[in-house]
Design a protein that fits this description.
It is a single chain. A hairpin with a 2-residue loop joins strand 5 and strand 6. The protein has one domain: 3-Layer(aba) Sandwich (Rossmann fold), CATH 3.40.50. Helices cover about 35% and strands about 20% of the residues. The protein has a 6-stranded mixed beta sheet. With about 200 residues, it is of the alpha/beta class. The chain starts with a strand and ends in an 8-residue tail after the last strand. It is globular, with a radius of gyration of 17 Å. GO terms for molecular function: phosphatase activity. It comes from Paenibacillus albiflavus. This is Histidine phosphatase family protein. InterPro entries: His_Pase_superF_clade-1 (IPR013078), His_PPase_superfam (IPR029033), PGM_Phosphatase (IPR050275).
Length: about 200
């Protein structure tokens, strides 16, 4: 049985400055550091992983480093699990970004790469590729793997995990250091819980 403990990073500077983040590489805020510290302590106590795979972007990598230190397990960085590549939007204040690069009528289409962004089809393919490699390597092992990433990528990975369509209106919430637990037992895929945040309940 393989378990995937999927964790979103803590609050970043872009969150409080209301900026498009994506591939813009913002640091954690002081609150984000506290959130990551608590998440690490919770994970070490209740869901200690066998290894950690993290996006190399600062907000995720720092969150992963707290988990790695608390759990004393090895940390690997993987570019495939970085956030959606939002091209020219990265780092812009949201109001400015929406003025410069407004959404087309009817919203962004799955193939759309306007503003030099990654299309949703390309984004989904990246999540599928990562999951395929991961399952190829670990599906026959009894391990728990912690994946530290971003809200957008976690949604794409969730859709890949459940074999859901690329273009759909349904999504899962991933708050600051929200924790998800997914399980694969032979050919059966289970969602155990999503967006657990009790470790920071008094901070929300």
């Amino acid at each position: 049985m393989l378990e995937l403990l999927v964790v979103r990073h803590g609050q970043s500077v872009a969150d409080i400055e209301n900026r498009f983040e994506g591939r813009a590489d913002f640091e954690l805020t002081s609150l984000g550091i506290e959130q990551a510290t608590r998440a690490a302590q919770f994970i070490n106590t209740y869901y200690k992983p066998d290894l950690i795979i993290s996006s190399p972007l600062k907000r995720a990598s720092k969150t992963a480093e707290f988990i790695s230190s608390a759990c004393k397990v090895e940390l690997f960085f993987e570019e495939e699990i970085m956030e959606w590549n939002n091209g020219l939007l990265a780092g812009l204040p949201r109001e400015e970004g929406m003025l410069k690069f407004p959404l087309p009528p009817g919203g962004r289409k799955p193939h759309d790469t306007s503003a030099e962004t990654e299309s949703f089809i390309q984004f989904r393919a990246r999540a599928e590729t990562f999951l395929s490699k991961l399952l190829s390597q670990f599906s026959d092992t009894n391990q728990r793997i912690c994946i530290v990433s971003h809200g957008g990528f976690i949604n794409m990975l969730f859709r890949s995990f459940l074999r859901l369509p690329v273009n759909m209106e349904t999504s899962i919430s991933s708050g600051d250091t929200g924790i998800h637990l997914w399980r694969i037992d032979r050919n059966e895929r289970e969602i155990i819980f999503t967006n657990y945040q009790e470790h920071i309940r008094d901070l929300i």
